[in-house]
Design brief:
The complex is a heterodimer of chains A (279) and B (220). With 279 residues, chain A is α+β, with helices and mostly antiparallel strands. Helices cover 24% and strands 23% of the residues of chain A. In chain A, the strands form 2 sheets. In chain A, strands 1, 2, 5, 6, 7, 8 and 9 form a 7-stranded antiparallel sheet that branches. Chain B is mainly β and 220 residues long. The relative contact order of chain B is 0.18. The chains are: A alpha+beta (279), B mainly beta (220).
Chain lengths: 279, 220
């Protein structure tokens, strides 16, 4: 027992503990899909619907009728924006997303005894933060012709439970899909899906216009805040990705089908050695 | 197991006979399209202008490296793809005496943004492209590199000097593009260019595998 305390377990087993730790790091980070480092740039956003109350942004719209602000947009331009926002392959004008934090109010109790620290106590969970969507300012402005009147619609109608077909319904579902690569020639896998329910915009950030200097794309990203009732997270739905990924890493000869490849030139070696199939 | 005799001088020469080596002059810029249509600027894709290309580089592509440390060791993981230099790809032209090629590029930059009238275009579609064709010793085109979404960022200054002995004037043009793709032998690409407007023009999406033969006009 004394030896076991003094030395690593390899002292008796003959297996280097340091080597085992090194190998395990490599296995997990490089050979196992589920524990490999994720690529933070592979994601997209989907918005399931736009409130009916925002349609027909002319004098017939309730927001324009009641004022005081007025929004005047041609139907075709609005259709462009609506279609783009609700595209099922992703809303392409969302540049960035700040996912909400979560925390519980926990710490030591103030009550102490004899100078010792107080015991640990946990209070309620902190209110969930808002979802932030950074939206690209485009020629036909989404932030000014969709998000701004949407916020006014929220102010007028509130979040009273109403059916989705009601003209006063002003909520939507926002889905954020995070992707993970699985192998060459293979579509990325949906590794994590966030779904924010009953979401609605609550603010549009300031946007400064100026005549000086050059501009970059960063100047055209406008932050918007969205509230929501709750979210659901879904893990990857494939159970065998790790085996495919591991085979790809360990047997580099596995390549996509010839028709999917972007390289390769010399005669007989062009054929795929093996197939990568994610089911 | 590798055998050193596989790497002897005989194999080396046999290999050269079969595969040859690439020569620095075996390239041409074979197609330029501004995306504005045939007339803006006029003559950009004329053979007389493309013949004036003196030198350029085949653009690079790299995968960013993501260091990941463990016990002080830096493991290197692949990140995202980057088209290094896609914001500043240089091509040097020999100038004809009346500077026609330079004027075309000047007009192209003005078509993109005219400071006097605030006219211009921000559309950088795949109808704007430049094709670099590479040729073998037999004059056959074996690869075409297509720079997509191309536009000029700088039309370079010209050096004039009365003290020189008749040196010709060159002009460096800097172009930006989104990314490039390769077409040619055994290469797969999902975009095909049909340059001739009579054949539809512009870019077509397809899953065509291109052969090694090249169209004499377009190089594709």
């Amino acid at each position: 027992m004394a030896d076991y305390i003094k030395f690593p377990f390899s002292y008796r087993s003959g297996v280097s503990e340091g080597q085992a730790r090194f190998d395990e790091f490599e296995r997990l980070l490089f050979h196992n899909w589920n524990t490999a480092l994720a690529n933070p740039t592979l994601w997209f956003v989907m918005i399931d619907s736009i409130p009916r109350g925002l349609r027909y942004m002319d004098s017939s719209n309730i927001i324009n009728k009641e004022g005081p602000n007025q929004y005047d947009q041609l139907a075709n331009n609005q259709e462009n924006i609506f279609t783009m926002m609700t595209n099922r392959i992703g809303c392409m004008i969302v540049h960035g997303v700040d996912l909400p934090m979560i925390q519980v109010d926990a710490g030591r109790a103030k009550t102490t005894m004899g100078g010792y620290y107080g015991g640990l106590v946990a209070n309620e969970i902190e209110e969930q933060n808002t979802l932030q969507l950074e939206i690209r300012e485009t020629q036909s402005s989404v932030t000014d012709f969709l998000i701004r009147p949407w916020i006014e619609l929220v102010a007028k109608n509130g979040f009273v439970a109403r059916p989705a077909g009601d003209d006063r319904y002003c909520k939507c579902r926002i889905t954020i899909v995070q992707l993970g690569v699985a192998g060459p020639g293979t579509d990325p896998i949906k590794r994590k899906i966030w779904q924010f329910y009953d979401a609605a915009p609550s603010s549009v950030a300031n946007n400064r216009l100026a005549h000086d200097g050059t501009w970059s794309a960063n100047d055209q990203f406008i932050n918007t805040s969205w509230v929501y009732s709750h979210y659901k997270m879904t893990d990857v739905r494939f159970e065998n990705v790790s085996e495919v990924y591991k085979a790809h890493v360990e047997y580099g000869g596995i390549r996509p089908q010839t028709g999917q490849r972007t390289s390769g030139r010399i005669g007989s070696s062009d054929g795929p050695v093996g197939d990568i199939v994610v089911v | 197991m590798a055998d050193i005799t596989d790497y002897d001088i005989e194999h080396f020469y046999d290999n050269l006979i079969v595969r040859e080596v690439a020569r620095k002059h075996q390239f041409r810029v074979t197609s330029i399209s501004t995306g504005f249509g045939q007339d803006v600027p006029e003559g950009i894709n004329d053979l007389e202008n493309k013949l004036l290309v003196e030198s350029t580089t085949l653009p690079s592509r790299n995968v960013t490296n993501v260091p990941l440390n463990f016990h002080g060791i830096k493991f290197n993981l692949p990140g995202n793809a980057e088209y290094t230099g896609s914001d500043a790809w240089n091509v040097t032209f020999r100038l004809d005496q009346q500077l026609n090629i330079r004027r075309i590029f000047e007009d192209w930059t003005t078509a993109i943004f005219d400071d006097r009238t605030t006219a211009g275009s921000i559309v950088r579609s795949n109808d704007a492209y430049l094709v670099i064709s590479l040729f073998d010793q037999m004059g056959g085109s074996h690869d075409q590199y297509v720079l997509w979404g191309v536009y000029p960022t700088e039309v370079g200054a010209l050096d004039y000097d009365v003290g020189t002995d008749g040196d010709y004037v060159t002009c460096q043009v800097t172009l930006a593009y989104h990314y490039w793709s390769r077409q040619g032998t055994n290469a797969f690409n999902n975009r095909a260019i049909v340059v001739d407007p009579a054949e539809g023009g512009g870019v077509q999406n397809s899953a065509t595998t291109f052969g090694g033969s090249a169209n004499a006009e377009t190089g594709l």
